[in-house]
Amino acid sequence: MEQIARAAIAILFDGVAYGMLLFIMSVGLSITMGLMGFANLAHGAFAMAGGYVLVGLMVGIGVPFIPALVMAGVIVAVISIPFERYLYRPLYQADELDHVLLSIGLVFMATAAITFVYGPSTVSITVPDYLNGQIDLGIGLFPAYRTFTIAVGAVLILALWYGFEGTIIGAKIRAAVDNRRMAQSIGINVDRLFVIAFALGSGLAALGGGLAIEIIGMEPTFALTYLVFFLIVVAVGGLGSIRGAFVAALLLGLIDTAGKYLWPDGGAFFIYAVTVAILLIKPMGLFGKA
Amino acid sequence: MNIKKLLIGSVAIFALSLGGASAAKVKIGVVLPYTGGAAQFGEQIDRGMNLFIQQHRAAFGGHEIELIKRDSKRPGGDIAKNAVQELITRQKVDLLTGFVFSPNAMASAPLITQGKVPMVIMNAGTAWIPKLSPYIARVSFTMWHAGYPMGGYAMNKLGCKTAVIGFTNYPPGKDSRNAFTTGFEKAGGKVLEAIPMGGPRQVPDFTPFFQRVKNAKPDCFYIFVPAGNHAVAVVKTYANLGMKTAGIRLIGPGDITQDTKLQSMPKEAEGMITVHHYSADYKTPVNIAFVKAWKAAYGADTTPDFMGVAGYDGMAAIAHAITAQGGAVTAEGTMKALSGWSYDSPRGKITIDPETRDIIQDSNVHKVVSKGGRLMIEVIDTIPQVKDPCKAHAIGKCK
Amino acid sequence: MTHQADIARRYMVARENWHWGEALPWLAIVAAFFVFPDYLALGTQIIIAIIFALSLDLILGYAGIITLGHAAYFGAGAYATGMLSAHLGWSEPISALLFGGLVGGALGLVTGWILLRYHGLTLLMLTLATAILLQEGANAAEDWTGGFDGLVGISFQPLLGSFEFDLWGKTYFCYAVAVLLLCFLFARAVVHSAFGRSLAGIKGNVERMHGVGTPVHGRLVAIYTISAAMAGLAGGLFAESNAYVTLDVLSFSRSGTVLIMLVLGGTGRLYGAFVGTVAYMVLEDELAKLSPEFWEFGIGLLLVVVVLFFRRGLLGALEDARARMGGLK
Prior knowledge:
heterotrimer, B: alpha/beta, Rossmann fold, 2 domains, globular, C: mainly alpha, 15 helices
């Protein structure tokens, strides 16, 4: 009995931590796809950029982990603005195929550029001691770094929730997701909203990429490898729905963790099977609008 | 006047290149991953090869060599095979080398038999590969060089009565699982469980697998993951789950304590026991000189690992084959030259087994120790001159 | 008849008739055989990629179906042909190839019937996940597929009993070109048939085609099945010419690459598959030789440039240039 309880707690905890990480990295993609209708396959490249900026800051100039994490998010968010302005914006009216190709082209370029600068190997960082090892949460010992990841995820969710539900900008973004033309006709500057949403999404991805180094590693092929997971989160959650992305990411994290724990022979089978099943039943995702 | 000078100059160069009267130009096709997630291996081997060439010009017996490099990219087989075909038919290479991934070597085997071009494998470690063509020789290792002795050592010296195996679910992983299981059970140990931990293409989140192992409480946890990115994640997860304090010993082949990855590992790596054939920390004079030359050539922050050594030794083998045949390289001639060839490598004495064309080398027991805040490998035991146990015991496809 | 309808009719007739320019790619292929005898192995791989891209053009260019999982059918064909030889010892190449096409087509029929009820991102994800599930399945069924190490032991008799398969790839090149020609003629007939035109209608305006009573789903499944069978043939050829099949045939990157090749050449014009594939593979071959580490950057840049400035692909750009020159006259 104790064995089962311990297994259940482990699965729950690790699943939530992994889910949080997926959420942080994918939520921006959900926003941009819902708001601008742009299938941005290069979203993972921004996450990867975050990871490498973090490494550059920590290893290169010795910035401590947490400030470096925040800085990585901000820096990548700023870098992403010209991308939106000059590469993505001209194509908002084009069809999905063009979106797919442009962003895949960017992924290739990012991968090559990162290989050129950092080499092909995995990079790693040294996190502060208090994030290593186990931490006592009162109900038992838990891996400290994962606890930290869950905490960061929780803070971000609250901030996003407040940002979208409690501020004018959030209301405008929600209005534009629901009906862009209507939003435009009542005087909302949609172009500016796009920039803000895009930069925010890229910055969050970068933050996630920085967090991910300790959990799933970071290498130049990261952008393509994890792209599929980001797309699954967005598709299963429903375009443009933050709540959807959150639920989908948690679901995915839990299913993946439980699958690995209980049936390791199954490989990655679980995630894809569940994705197909959900999409067959709910084509617009769990929280998408028809 | 100027023209005349120029003419004389060029004649001089011509005469110089004729210096060795019988000097031939030998074309060597190199098939390695230069892009993608495995590019780090291509880089290691490439550097090893180049270091040997720079240091030992004379070893080639005055024959000029030309390296024609092709990118095998992925372990899919097809890209490497097309590269090999192009190297044989279009570039007319005399010799092929490289090959990080087993499937790529396997896919190319029929071509080299047909085209009669010898192949010197510098990594690909699936045990039965040399059986696929009479023109394959291997200077790297097989999974059994490490896994099989580790099994016996774990039971007899480390006192592990039970073990759980975690392995990356692809043929080298299964090979390693079988090797350890055979060695461990022969010594009287009991394998509680063998857990496949995802594919080789991406580093998984190891936590759920390790949680399962932690709850199973074995004495030893034997892990095989592909060299490269997986190892750091393995040790970090082991540390973060507090498995060391729970009394579970982490063991495995040397891929999980690869030299190039050691400094990225947490302090819990200390005390890990692995079996392998090379570490940059070996204290032999040959190796100290080798590591020094490597750092001088590629930077103080770089380290050779077993792949770099395989590239170095592989080029030594090739140089020997070229010289022994007087520059006229054939498949049969190369195999004859390499058969029984011995070399004083940075990893110790290596020999190509005349029977199997596979390598014979020491399997060393490595212990991770901390010296001056730096994690290092210390050799605590040696199983001398191991012939591939898979073929020696005629197991499975090695028959 | 209204003026517009007349123009449309004449346009259709003009497209259906053979144009002299269409001989060019075929002449180029014949010329390649004689001019580049050392490059025939690469040539065979290019021909196989063209067949694969052509199959994608049928659904993407003519029916507007965007997929990120077309490798599923290529891989199914490759494994079908390969396993027929490796496990059952069947070594007659033409029938084994047809078997590959058949298996690809059958898989296309079943998956298409289910998946083509969906659109947009949902369809993208479903096609992607289907191909990955298949890849996972092939990895798990190691006893049959050889798993990660690949399927070894494929060997075929000489073609038609007398043309030996050689190391230099002459036979395979001719064989692959023959298969390409047949696939092309078939594809051309399909897109210019009444069925093909109804697909164009579906692509242009689904609602209207529903309105006039066209069985939209049935038509889409039909073209999807044809396309999958053709992809299966390409896969079968791949298995025969390489005598080796690995999980790579089902990979996401193969699905992505074929899409890139096709769009590079231009969709909905059959010859786009030729131009795009040749451009991509030759460029990749050359760039990789120049600097194996960084060929990716060049390909990525090319994609970005094509999307931003030549949105209708290389062939589209060519047509635009010609139209502009015609306007100057």
